[in-house]
Amino acid sequence: MQKLKILPLIITALTALTLTSCSTTTAEQYEATALTSYTWQVKYANNLTSQPQPRIEIFANTSVVNRNGLKPAGAVIGPDDRGLWWPTLPPRPSVDEVEQRKKSQEEAGKPELIKDVKYKLTYGVGNSQQTLPTNYDVYRQVVKAYPQKTPLELTLGVNDNSVEKAEPVSK
What we know:
Layout: H1 2-21, E1 24-27, E2 30-45, E3 55-67, H2 95-100, E4 107-108, E5 112-125, E6 128-133, H3 136-145, E7 152-156, E8 163-168
Antiparallel strand pairs: 1-7, 2-3, 2-4, 2-5, 5-6, 7-8
């Protein structure tokens, strides 16, 4: 019964913390980037089906930086259904390469192609610039606002360590 009385207090405290930990700022100068990458990796373990934390080896990686939705140099695939451009596929590791990295008693999994995107937003703060991690929704807002240089109101995450939201400022 005691636990049920504490729960509302915890929820109230977390809500207050969340509300006081986020801030907003207006940015007139900004740039959103999406680093798209392909990586070949192989998992190694003494028993791939039962070992919860296999060792992962990275073999080859290619990446390209998307800026404000424009086609980057070196992009060969895209835009995809999210408006992102992708690099060429890296070479798949050969059987010999996979076996060379295998330790005794280990088995090697099949090469896996990992597709990844990391979003960042750089914006002006006075005479300096701030670059923070962000998400797909913020990236898309910047892509839409960038051609007209529309000012954006940015909602920053906890401790101002990320950009959680971007909305056009109505003039």
